Amino acid sequence: MIPERPSTCQRLTAGGRISRQAYDEALRRRVQIADDLLRLFDHHDVLICPTTPITAPKRGQTTADVGERTIEVGQALVAYTAPWSVTGAPALAVPVSCDPHGLPTSIQILGRPGDEIGVLNTGLVIER
């Protein structure tokens, strides 16, 4: 049985309860994250990072241990990718191996905004 998830309507309603102050702070942080990321590309063509802090969860698994914390699986699966979604930087996940249990692992390649070709070319090199 697939666990129930909040409906789109419930998520939108919850988003509507975010205060103006919290929203403005999130916008400020987004600019700060994007600026920090852009500075990294002064010295690097791409960045290579883990895609997730966990391997593929088991069917029906709702929590995962990440370091010393237990968090929701959904939160763990986007923990390392969501920050880049707000920066305009292209990102690509590439499978690289399997863990000791045979579950797939991957890395993500991040590039300078507008450099999708560089990210894809790096992905091709890694895949080979």
UniProtKB/TrEMBL annotation:
Coiled coil, from the record: none
Among Pfam families, the record links this protein to:
Amidase (PF01425)
The UniProt record lists the Amidase domain at: 19-119
Q: Which Gene3D superfamilies match?
A: Amidase signature (AS) domain (3.90.1300.10)
- Quote the InterPro entries the UniProt record gives: Amidase, Amidase_dom, AS_sf
> Its Enzyme Commission number?
3.5.1.4
Q: Which reaction does it catalyse?
A: a monocarboxylic acid amide + H2O = a monocarboxylate + NH4(+)
Look up the domain of life of the source. Bacteria
Q: Which family does it belong to?
A: Belongs to the amidase family.
Q: What's the name of the protein?
A: amidase
